[in-house]
Structure formats: structure tokens, C-alpha cells
């Protein structure tokens, strides 16, 4: 993390006791590149009279719904003459800023930034309108330095960003194991080093970190570098399910353009069905889109396990969102948030019913 950015984060920590990493000064995402294979032209009547729907996602396999749906044209087909206009982000805080500014309307994002966006706006900026992915997160270690989970003391473990979803998960896990770590600085019995996912494999190879708690495909990249998965986060959750990616929308956009939101959700549900029923084709589409979005396709020894380790889901797994918020509170990164109303699953359940699928639950965190 650059020094200027770190100073800004620490300054924010002194004034706002919320998810600290989500308050850094970040630029907005880059416009996603389009290629002829992955683009379906906007054609037909415009949805809700809109020229475009601006969408954000990450070039991660945990955002497979957005990537595959974009590559295969599912979103564009549902939007008709309204252009599906994606931007690629590297971190949740930047995507939240973009949503708040109107630079994007809908976004695929992790639970911690979604919670922070809801909390800092006092429940006025966004709504979670669907699930997207579960799992796909692992603690990968250098097996020469760390043999078991009892060998973490004195080691340096990377997470993608201060206060992000994996950072919260690691801090909570270390606390449960009795390790003392200052959540802001990352210093303590274990050093938590915040490192961008694209840099983590290099740091791992060079030996400046001993392990990393990271999402896919970064986890599989580290394994390809000689790392070993010491803990799959699925093992820490009931039935191995926990939310890693949500779909969020600007409340203003939801109110003004519900037909466009419904079209995006219809495409999301159809994409998840496609991924589950056509895994080989979906994996290929995912890797093609990753090549377009990030500039490089993943080799088989990375894309295969990364795709296999991530489960797409329409269910937002709302009960696990509350648990993740509780983890952030225990880690000292968040004051206990009031999450009531963060979900609006009305349109999603409408789409699911039309597709002959069961409704999903908001765990009591929907609007009254």
C-alpha cells in the first residue's frame, strides 16, 4: 500500500470508527474493454428509456456471474436497446464511491464494502438486491515456513486491503486463535500486511510474505507458485456457505429504473444457471473475459481450481452477512451496525418465481 494512501486510511480511522480500509482515497474503475466475441450489440427497445446501465465488477473468479454474463451477452440480451456498460474495479471502496457518485448504477462487490457503504450513508446509498458467489477464499502458506495452523505466530500474512472482506476474516480468525493483532497497523503476534491481489504472488515468490488470506484466483496463483492451502474458509462456515460477492444497486437508480434492475437480475439468474449447467463452457467464457478485463488469461493450473472453488448463488446468504459484520465488530474495525433494511430482494424473488426457482430470504434484514 503506498505511503500516501496509508496515511489517508489512518487519518480516516481517527475520525470515523467504521470499516477503516474502506475509507481510503481511491480512483474509480477502468472502463471494461469489449471484444467482438464477448459483446452482444444493444438492440431493440430501451429498457426504462435508458441509454445505458453502468455496472461495476472485479476481474476475479468470485465475480464469475458478472464476467460470464457479460462475455456471453446475457445482460445485454435482457437490456435490449439499453447498453450494458461495465467498469472494472480493483477494490470495493472505489466501487462504493463510484456508486455514490452515479458513476455506476449496479455493482458486484464483497460484503464488507457493502456493509460499510450502507453504514456510512446511514442506510441511504445502496441496497443489496441479490447474492452472486459463495466461497472461493483460502489461507495459502509457504509450506517451508508454515507447516500447520499452529505455526502462524511471528509470520507475515497478506490480505487484499485494510478492512476488506478477507482482512476482516483473517483478523477474526487470528483473534479466535488467541493471537493479538492491532487491526489498524496489522502489527502484533502475526503481521497482517495489506497487499493488492495483483502484487501478492510476486511478494509470495520473493519471500516478503509467508502466507495470504485471499480470494480466487489469487489463492490458486499462489498454489501454482508452490504454496499450500492450509485452510479453505468454507470450513469455518455452516454447510460451507458464506457470502463473498453480493449485487448492490443505488437506491436512487432502483427507485427510478426498476425495470432495468429487474433485467439485470434476470440476466444474473440466467447466468448462474448457465454456469452450473455448462461448467466447461462457462469456465472458458470466464477466462476469456478475464483476459479482456485484466489483459491476461489464466493458465489451466490456476483457472481450473479457481473456478472449482467458487460457487455461484442467487441466494445472498443474508445470515452470513450479519456474521461477517459481527466479525468486523470483534476485530475493532466496525461499530455494531444497524443492518435492518440493507436488503431488497423483491425483484430478485419476482425473477426467481418466473424462472420456477424458490424464493430467497433476507434473514430479517429487509425493509419492514
Describe how the helices and strands are arranged.
Layout: H1 3-15, E1 30-31, E2 52-58, H2 64-71, H3 74-79, E3 83-89, H4 92-101, E4 106-109, H5 111-120, E5 126-135, E6 137-141, E7 156-159, H6 165-176, E8 191-194, H7 200-206, E9 211-215, H8 218-224, E10 228-232, E11 243-250, H9 251-256, H10 258-277, H11 279-294, H12 300-309, E12 310-312, H13 318-331, H14 346-354
Parallel strand pairs: 2-3, 2-4, 7-8, 7-9
Antiparallel strand pairs: 1-3, 4-11, 5-11, 5-12, 6-9, 6-10
Helix pairs in contact: 2-10, 2-11, 6-13, 8-12, 10-11, 10-14
In whole angstroms, the N-to-C terminal distance is: 41 Å
Radius of gyration equals: 19 Å
The portion of residues forming beta strands comes to: 15-25%
- Topology, number of strands: 12
| Major β-sheet strand ordering | 1-3-2-4-11-5-12
Helix content: 40-55%
Descriptive notes:
With 368 residues, this protein is α/β, with parallel strands linked by helices. The protein has 2 domains: 3-136 and 241-354, Periplasmic binding protein-like II (D-Maltodextrin-Binding Protein, domain 2); 137-239, 3-Layer(aba) Sandwich (D-Maltodextrin-Binding Protein, domain 2). It is 40% helix and 17% strand. It contains 14 helices and 12 strands. It has a 7-stranded mixed sheet with strand order 1-3-2-4-11-5-12, sandwiched between helices. The protein has a 5-stranded mixed sheet with strand order 8-7-9-6-10, sandwiched between helices. The longest helix has 20 residues, at 258-277. The model is unreliable at 1-27 and 34-38 (pLDDT under 50).
Amino acid at each position: 500500500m503506498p505511503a500516501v494512501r496509508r496515511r489517508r486510511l489512518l487519518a480516516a480511522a481517527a475520525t470515523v470508527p467504521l470499516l477503516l480500509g474502506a475509507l481510503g482515497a481511491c480512483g474509480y474503475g477502468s472502463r471494461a474493454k469489449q471484444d467482438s466475441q464477448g459483446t452482444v450489440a444493444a438492440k431493440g427497445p430501451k429498457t426504462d428509456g435508458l441509454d445505458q446501465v453502468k455496472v461495476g465488477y472485479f476481474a476475479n473468479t468470485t465475480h464469475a456471474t458478472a464476467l460470464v454474463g457479460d462475455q456471453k451477452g446475457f445482460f445485454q440480451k435482457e437490456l435490449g436497446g439499453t447498453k450494458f456498460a461495465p467498469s472494472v474495479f480493483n477494490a470495493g471502496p472505489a466501487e462504493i464511491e463510484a456508486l455514490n457518485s452515479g458513476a455506476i448504477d449496479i455493482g458486484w462487490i464483497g460484503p464488507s464494502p457493502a456493509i460499510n457503504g450502507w453504514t456510512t450513508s446511514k442506510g441511504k446509498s445502496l441496497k443489496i438486491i441479490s447474492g452472486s458467489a459463495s466461497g472461493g477464499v483460502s489461507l495459502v502458506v509457504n509450506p517451508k515456513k508454515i507447516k500447520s495452523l499452529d505455526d502462524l505466530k511471528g509470520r507475515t500474512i497478506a490480505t487484499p486491503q485494510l478492512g476488506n472482506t478477507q482482512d476482516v476474516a483473517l483478523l477474526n480468525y487470528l483473534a479466535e486463535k488467541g493471537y493479538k493483532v492491532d487491526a489498524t497497523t496489522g502489527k502484533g503476534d502475526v503481521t497482517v500486511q495489506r497487499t493488492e491481489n495483483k502484487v501478492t504472488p510476486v511478494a509470495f515468490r520473493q519471500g516478503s510474505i509467508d502466507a495470504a488470506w485471499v480470494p480466487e484466483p489469487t489463492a490458486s496463483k499462489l498454489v501454482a507458485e508452490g504454496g499450500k492451502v492450509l485452510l479453505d474458509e468454507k470450513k469455518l462456515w455452516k454447510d460451507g456457505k458464506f457470502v463473498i460477492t453480493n449485487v448492490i444497486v443505488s437506491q436512487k437508480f432502483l427507485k427510478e429504473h426498476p425495470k432495468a434492475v429487474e433485467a439485470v437480475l434476470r440476466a444474473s439468474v440466467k447466468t448462474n444457471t448457465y454456469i452450473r449447467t455448462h461448467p466447461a463452457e462457462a469456465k472458458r467464457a470466464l477466462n476469456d473475459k478475464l483476459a479482456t478485463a485484466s489483459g491476461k488469461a489464466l493458465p489451466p493450473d490456476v483457472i481450473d481450481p479457481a473456478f472449482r472453488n467458487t460457487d455461484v448463488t442467487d441466494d445472498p446468504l443474508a445470515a452470513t452477512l450479519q456474521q461477517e459484520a459481527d466479525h468486523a465488530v470483534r476485530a475493532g474495525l466496525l461499530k455494531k451496525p444497524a443492518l435492518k433494511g440493507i436488503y431488497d430482494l423483491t425483484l430478485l424473488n419476482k425473477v426467481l418465481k418466473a424462472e420456477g426457482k424458490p424464493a430467497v430470504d433476507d434473514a430479517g434484514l429487509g425493509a419492514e
